[in-house]
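Look at one such:
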Amino acid sequence: MRLTTLLLLAAMAVPFAGPASAQTGAQAGQAGDISPQDVLDAAVGDWNKDGREDIALLAVTPGDDMQVGLYVYVREEATNGSLLTLVLAVPDKIWGGRGGDTAAFGQEPSIKALANGSIAITTQNSAIGRNRWEHTISLAHRDGRFVVAGLTFNSYDTLQEEEPLSCDLNLLTGRGVVNERKISFAPIALQLQDWETQDGEDPGIRICRGR
């Protein structure tokens, strides 16, 4: 099913880039430039819980070699679910690249559908340097927007000079677990385009590290 989906998307990536809604942002036009070889990974799920299968994909776009774009399409009622419409385009937002191309193997991003209808996006560094990590954010459809609802982050030092970190956060409820210790924090509901990284840390990682 997953391989079939990827092959279908690769063959039809450009036709899928249809009208964009207000959430796509100023750079949404780049979605129309996606070519089959740009698609890195894809997931099928019911993002807006209307009973129809939607699609989300990760694709490289012109810009930073180590940044990937997220593009989300839904089957809207206006087309009776027969056509996919672009509702979210966030170019050059996800860290990583195609292994063996512009990035090393072990730095490829991935995307999958969760059972609750959320979109999980995973980035990683499992091969380069002493600091290895895996980072997953989940996007949930809330009130017509896609917000970052959860974060899971695990990291370790191959030289074992720094303590490993294991963190799982529900950003919408303000609850989480850090290294097996329960924590609470002020809930946040940021859209992906507002999910900014500063000094290598996004809002979720800063919570994990108590900053």
